């Protein structure tokens, strides 16, 4: 199975739940990326999912091309006038040669055939184009007991069901080959105040949870949800959830 088919198999039916539960990136991240670009004509959000990040980028660029291998994800993207959504792989982009000022892959690059993707990046990048491979790492809950129970679930219980590509997310893409002029970036994070339902809904979107259920181990998620509920307190109590943002950033 190719990388694109593997990614599509994980996310082909996930569009609706992703749109509802997945955290979005802060405006601060986009504003920083925009500040690194010499021109703001065309941006590419590759592996765009349901277009959450694309819609933020679109506020700063004349046009955005947003692509994903999953038709389900694209179908659940909200239409935006200056975004063209397309179902296509990262390694074969419909953008014209030397047309892109910004290329972003947010929480997606670990699914790519990087060598082929980089070859395509060199084809479509305009002079001065910025490439950003963005990921967010393991979350923390601002509640000691809930956070401890979450970490046990993440690393020990559901951990064996993550696909091998997940290791790249956990290390912030540090192990990736990145043959471009690398740039520094400021420390950033995604911050959300969530109820118990929002948090559990997010965890249920994980590919590892779905893989565990497929293997007959759905009790792992149910036991975790039950125990977390007892620790959380009032289900409507908002608790702060934080994900550290990591990037490989450079000029093409």
TrEMBL record:
| Pfam families per the UniProt record, alphabetical | Methyltransf_11 (PF08241)
Answer yes or no on keyword Transferase.
yes
Pinpoint the Methyltransferase type domain residues. 44-132
The molecular function GO annotations come to: methyltransferase activity
Please cite one Gene Ontology biological process associated with this protein: methylation
The alphabetized UniProt keywords are: Methyltransferase, Transferase
Q: Which SUPFAM superfamilies match?
A: S-adenosyl-L-methionine-dependent methyltransferases (SSF53335)
Query: Is the keyword Transferase in the record?
Result: yes
State the similarity comment.
Belongs to the methyltransferase superfamily.
Name assigned to this protein: Methyltransferase domain-containing protein
Source organism per UniProt: Pseudovibrio ascidiaceicola
Its organism's taxonomic lineage begins at:
Bacteria, Pseudomonadati, Pseudomonadota, Alphaproteobacteria, Hyphomicrobiales
